């Protein structure tokens, strides 16, 4: 096997030992980008080697396999870099709609992106080009399913395994609890599936208007409306579509009432390992397939992964992939016209430990730092993007539970975190006074009053100076984490590798 490595299109390398040269080059690049900076987490000293401009690299390679040369374009991503975050993105109109890859990357301020899972590209209805694979973002199911899946855990560890996403919904009424599992999330099985039960979130769009079913509207964990007409999906809620069958009316709808409390438990089942856990343990996932590489060896099994279409099993075409390298970094890329088997062998030669096929052909597209390296030939339903933030993103864990609502960030050496998920996790009572623009929180006899952009807080009526004031970003309020947490009796520890603030509090 021979190879030619081009660095961002600016030069080339020839000779033997392609994989060894690639590893040495990546190591040298990583070392050159490392910038050690001392930062304080609200008074606790720590250091990091992350760069606001680093962590994402582009390269091309020409790989020979079975007498044919293949061109690989690829982006490598350091998943441990706190300025970066990977997530699936859907078209701006919601699931079923389509959008250009360039528009998706501009809208999400992406540093890199690749086209995502298969979708109904030839559907006549422009609003029903539904994706075929599962998707998860920040512990929340965007679309249910069971596929070979690339996923990143909250510990920033990537895997490619066969996963299944599902959920259990529990409704409480006058002390009684009733639980059910929807058929799916943000999908639709057609008017002929009379008894379907589907859970819709804002990822689907703004409204649910399918006929033949009752829509149960949930806002902030409370059933607010039950209607057979069109239902608007709340910004802070969901809509459950329940098909009009006698069984559903008798055994489900009769147990649901306006004012009932609703609790959702989303789960991820790993079909390869047999493990099942909460979806909150995962930061991102996208299901496609077939699988290409496992533990450095070619691993293509069409029957196992549910594929029999000749376009996948035998035809040659431009293809896209997602993979993992030896350093547990994410690799996004495209391969020139090839069969699935040829692509798998090429990626194994490149040294990827694991890899999976993405949608290909006219859907294949790759974006890196403001430019399309490969332009798709059609609009896309979804993509896998790498977002770059201006400020390091901080994970928050309370008593071992990951807060998935929003990430915190570091500003002026102070960790800022979203208040709602934290206060709920520590059983604090909080209120927002819109007229006075004050956030009041109480726990175990302590009271804190904060105002956005005000450099002081009131603690039990006494004025206390803040290192950084509370602030509102995109309509959500962020608080100085250590000050608030410790004032309310929590202990805060810092995980430098994961940029994670770990709160421990007695209940």
From TrEMBL:
Pfam families in UniProt: Cu_amine_oxidN1, NAGPA
Domain of life: Bacteria
Transmembrane stretches, start-end: none
Boundaries of every Copper amine oxidase-like N-terminal domain copy: 398-497
Occurrences of domain Phosphodiester glycosidase (ranges): 214-386
Family matches, as PANTHER family: N-ACETYLGLUCOSAMINE-1-PHOSPHODIESTER ALPHA-N-ACETYLGLUCOSAMINIDASE (PTHR40446)
The protein's name: Copper amine oxidase
Source organism of this protein record: Paenibacillus contaminans
């Amino acid at each position: 096997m021979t190879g030619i490595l081009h660095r961002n299109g600016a030069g080339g390398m020839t000779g033997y030992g392609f994989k060894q040269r690639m590893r040495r080059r990546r190591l040298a690049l990583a070392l050159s980008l490392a910038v050690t900076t001392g930062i304080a987490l609200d008074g606790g000293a720590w250091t990091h080697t992350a760069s606001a401009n680093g962590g994402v690299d582009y390269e091309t390679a020409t790989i020979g396999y079975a007498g044919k040369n293949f061109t690989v374009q690829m982006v490598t991503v350091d998943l441990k870099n706190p300025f970066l975050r990977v997530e699936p993105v859907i078209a701006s109109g919601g699931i079923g709609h389509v959008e250009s890859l360039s528009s998706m990357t501009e809208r999400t301020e992406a540093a890199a992106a690749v086209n995502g899972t298969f979708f109904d590209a030839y559907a006549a209805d422009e609003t029903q080009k539904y994706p075929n694979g599962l998707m998860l973002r920040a512990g929340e199911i965007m679309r249910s399913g069971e596929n070979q899946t690339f996923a990143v855990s909250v510990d920033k560890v990537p895997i490619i395994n066969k996963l299944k996403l599902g959920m259990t919904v529990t409704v409480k009424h006058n002390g009684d609890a009733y639980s059910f599992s929807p058929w799916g999330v943000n999908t639709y099985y057609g008017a002929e599936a009379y008894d379907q039960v589907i859970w819709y979130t804002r990822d689907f769009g703004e409204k649910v208007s399918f006929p033949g079913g009752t829509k149960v509207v949930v806002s902030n964990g409370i059933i607010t409306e039950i209607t057979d007409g069109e239902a608007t999906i709340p910004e802070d809620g969901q809509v459950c579509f329940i098909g009009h069958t006698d069984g559903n009316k008798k055994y489900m709808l009769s147990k649901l009432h306006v004012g009932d409390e609703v609790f959702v438990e989303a789960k991820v089942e790993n079909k390869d390992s047999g493990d099942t856990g909460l979806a909150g343990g995962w930061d991102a996932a996208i299901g496609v397939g077939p699988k290409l590489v496992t533990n450095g060896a070619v691993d293509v099994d069409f029957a196992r992964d549910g594929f029999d279409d000749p376009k996948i099993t035998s035809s040659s075409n431009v293809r896209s992939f997602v993979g993992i390298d030896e350093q547990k970094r994410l690799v996004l890329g495209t391969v020139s016209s090839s069969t699935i088997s040829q692509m798998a062998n090429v990626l194994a030669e490149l040294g990827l430990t694991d890899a999976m096929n993405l949608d290909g052909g006219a859907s294949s597209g790759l974006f890196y730092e403001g430019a399309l390296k490969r332009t798709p030939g059609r609009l896309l339903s979804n993509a896998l993007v790498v977002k770059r933030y201006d400020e390091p993103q901080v994970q928050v864990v309370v008593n071992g539970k990951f807060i998935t609502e929003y990430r915190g960030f570091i500003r002026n050496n102070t960790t800022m975190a979203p208040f709602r998920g934290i206060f709920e996790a520590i059983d604090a009572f909080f209120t927002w006074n819109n007229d006075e623009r004050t956030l009041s929180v109480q726990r175990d006899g302590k009271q804190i009053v904060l105002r956005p952009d005000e450099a002081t807080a009131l603690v039990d009526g006494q004025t206390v100076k803040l290192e950084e004031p509370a602030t509102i970003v995109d309509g959500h309020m962020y608080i100085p984490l250590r000050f608030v947490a410790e004032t309310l009796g929590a202990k805060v520890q810092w995980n430098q590798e994961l940029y994670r603030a770990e709160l421990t509090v007695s209940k």
